[in-house]
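As a next step, we paired sequence with structure tokens, yielding the entry below.
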Amino acid sequence: MIQPREAWRLVAIQRVLVRHGLDEFVATNHLYRPIRWLLHLIAGRTTTPDGPRGVRLRRALEELGPIFVKFGQSLSTRRDLLPRDIADELAKLQDEVPPFPSGEAIRLAEAAFGQSLDTVFATFDEHPLAAASIAQVHSASLSDGSEVVVKILRPGVEQQIRRDIAVLYALARLANRYWAEARRLRPLEVVAEYEKIIVDELDMLREAGNAAQLRRNFENSPLLYIPRVQWDYCRKSVLVTERISGVPIGDIDALRGGGIDMAKLAATGVEIFFTQVFRHNFFHADMHPGNIFVDTSNPASPRYMAVDFGIMGSLNPRDQQYLAENFLAFFNQDYQRVARLHINSGWVPEGTRIDELESAFRTVCEPIFNKPLKDISFGQFLVRLFSAARRFDMQVQPQLILLQKTLLNVEGLGRQLYPDLDLWETAQPILEEWMQSRVSGRAVIERLREQLPEVSDSLQEFPQIVHSILQRAADGTLEVRLRDSGAASMREEQRRQAGLRNGVLAGGALLIAATLWLGLEGQPVWLGWGVGASGLGLLARARPWR
């Protein structure tokens, strides 16, 4: 049930939306016309609000707080999905959120440092360079003359975020209880994943660590530059980094005026994303235009410059493999492979018929290939893929939501820079190279090296396991569990039990012999391995541990 505090927040959200005239987006539907007067009464509004709809939407999101601002930022990158007036206004949320008072910023920073800013920095500009939903940024300089930026958390932002997260949890619990699709879409898990992401963003030391890791990943790279972290000046609520100078990536006119190769720039953005996801497994997950600048010193080969590392993502190896193989199978139009991948991953029930799933994927994905290759969208593919899998009871994977959101942002940005961008031409070589590296001899050896400690522990326990099995077999206490409770099956198992004991004894003896042969470096070595394999085969056939 929704608690009173959460209910009041929902009412407050409704009041903000109605006060800014956003009830029109819902109330224009004929189902809501009878209660339009009630919405006006709740908000206490009797006059028409000022401004176009895009301006009113932006103002409402700013008033509602950080979570809503971030939602608007994500939407702003998809100009292909939004009317132009709304996209233009939401783009202002990327770096034009109203700042909080400079005096408050100074007070918070001095509290974090435990001393006056005059003793910390050589200079500190009270006027913010930019303001965002979580923090705002001021320019400063250090005693050695280094130019830096100082990022300071907004006052009370953690309380606001936790309040709205509680509301999201309340709505998710209601969905779990009353919505038939909740089991598949897993709203509680989705909110939990988002909570982890947004709360982590409140820790400036974590962000500093993210920036340092990303900088190492792209050290001396012509693709992306990450500013240096000034660790001596970082605190939990304050981040200090090198100040960079570049053209905001959203300033298309300035980029074109500087002779930037826009096709190269767009392709580089896609290459950066896939490099982070598959080669580094550590990706910047907040790549809206307010966080991206361009080094224009070499117009023929422009380099990206990123800021704001509060939200980073990574995938486990299984999810990486799943995505890469799905993308490759999709662009080869191998829908049976896509279907098998879904079943093998466990994302659809094991008993799902492959031919039916394959047919569903073909139905929704084949129309995409009627378009030129440059118009095929990875984001659209994922949306269609998951939509097709819905009828087969596929569950939402919360760990992929951040990647999907980032991929949509990158695609939207790439299309904005260069509408004829061929995403597949850029991504395919990276995916194929990564897949090949996964099966290379060096990769196999590396995985074996990583697993060696666990294997070593298991090998140390192996003689005790063999000894225990042999002892139980010799004592006549070895038990074989029966799955069939019928009398015929019981008699059959009794007849087999003597044979199983003999198999265990023989297998154990062969393993001991193989161990001695290998341990004494007997020649040929292959004989020891062959005897050991035979022993394992006998034990596996007997399966006394089941």
Q: What stands out?
A: Confidence is low (pLDDT under 50) at residues 28-39.
